[in-house]
Write a structure and sequence with these properties.
It is an enzyme of class 2 (transferase). The protein has 311 residues and is an alpha/beta fold. It is built from 9 helices and 14 strands. The strands form 2 sheets. Strands 1-8-2-3-7-4-6-5-9-10 form a 10-stranded mixed sheet, with helices on both faces. The chain has a 4-stranded parallel sheet with strand order 11-14-12-13. The longest helix has 17 residues. It binds threonylcarbamoyladenylate and magnesium ion (MG).
């Protein structure tokens, strides 16, 4: 798409809400990654997001809401879902529910994914707006999600109507997605909350299925290549530093052309995507990712590295 829009860059969340009401496209930070959103009840605005991102038409968007009480107006909330909402929201969790509000965009599916972000700026915008905002991660389809304002501007200036400025995402990987439209419930995408943590609260939860050939994906987004930089990504435990390649990991040695040594899984999550983007900018051809620590966050980091490895 040509970058022909006159994009507003602002911290004014009421202006962002006004642009949404007028059918515009707004890019905003959340606690996970940046999102690119439109009024969920404005079909042409929602479809414009697909054009901008070059996103496959059958991959639905997450509906963002300003407070947990609104979820029951959009999707079917059972008692177990209600206690989950109470415990985890606002926060980095998306729930797929049976859809009850037909006016909300969801690519024609009978289900809808809902999420109440905890980021202060987006919460302000959602509360000024007052309704549901459909938003995927702000990145061109297949590329790593965006976690820094500079990347949001370089990729989307001229393509969206407004970029909302606020604190940068704290977490760095997309929200956990759980499907409660099926019984037993299924974890579709690990995030800040992984299977082990959630299983304690949802004992009958089923883990992420590895998608075999011919199998129908539970979540449309799972069948697409994701999160990948242009460079080739490898998961390694043993690679030694080289002068032409890049590496990221916990307490890794120096000696690479470009590397990032993080202290724990939360730093790993927070910087993985921006590291991928920096490697592409430097023209690096190969990226070696060392395994995350065996603690909270491990599953999400491995999931994103493995997805980035697929070609
Ligand atoms: O952290 C996040 O979730 C970010 C921020 C912006 O909120 N958003 C995000 O959106 O990561 P996206 O579109 O990149 O990922 C949403 C995932 C996709 O894999 C999509 O297929 C799945 O959620 N999804 C959305 N609606 C669904 C539905 N009704 N049924 C199954 N999966 C659904
Ligand atoms: Mg995405």
């Amino acid at each position: 798409m040509s970058k022909s829009k006159n994009t507003i860059l602002t911290e004014d969340s009421s202006l962002a809400a006004k642009v949404l009401k007028e059918g515009g496209i707004v890019l905003f930070p959340t606690e996970t990654v940046y999102g690119i959103g439109a009024d969920s009840r404005n079909l042409s605005a929602c479809l414009e997001i697909y054009k901008i991102k070059n996103r496959p038409a059958d991959n639905p968007l997450i509906v963002h809401l300003g407070n947990p009480g609104m979820i029951q107006l959009i999707g079917e909330v059972s008692d177990s879902v209600r206690s989950l909402i109470y415990k985890y929201m606002p926060g980095p969790l998306s729930l797929v529910l049976k859809k009850i509000d037909e006016s909300v965009f969801s690519t024609g599916l009978p289900t809808v994914a809902v999420r109440v972000p905890s980021h202060p700026k987006v919460l302000e915008m959602l509360s000024f707006f007052g309704g549901p905002v459909s938003a995927p991660s702000a990145n061109l389809s297949g590329q790593p999600s965006i976690t820094r304002l500079e990347d949001a501007i370089s990729e989307f200036d001229g393509l969206v109507d407004l970029i909302l400025k606020g604190p940068e995402p704290e977490i760095g990987l997309e929200s956990t997605v759980m499907d409660f439209s099926v019984d037993p419930p299924k974890l579709l995408r690990p995030g800040y909350w992984g299977f082990e943590e959630l299983k304690r609260f949802v004992p009958n939860l089923i883990g992420v299925s590895s998608l075999k050939d011919g199998e129908t994906p539970a979540s449309p987004g799972m069948k697409y290549r994701h999160y990948a930089p242009t460079a080739k990504v490898f998961l390694t435990e043993t690679r030694s530093p080289e002068s032409e390649t890049a590496a990221i990991g916990i307490n890794i040695p120096s000696g690479w052309k470009f590397s990032l040594s993080v202290k724990d899984n939360s730093e790993y999550m927070k910087h993985l995507y921006s590291f991928f983007r920096d490697c592409d900018r430097l023209g690096i051809k190969e990226i070696y990712c060392f395994p995350p620590a065996n603690e909270s966050g491990e599953e999400a980091i491995l999931n994103r590295i493995l997805k980035a490895q697929e070609r």
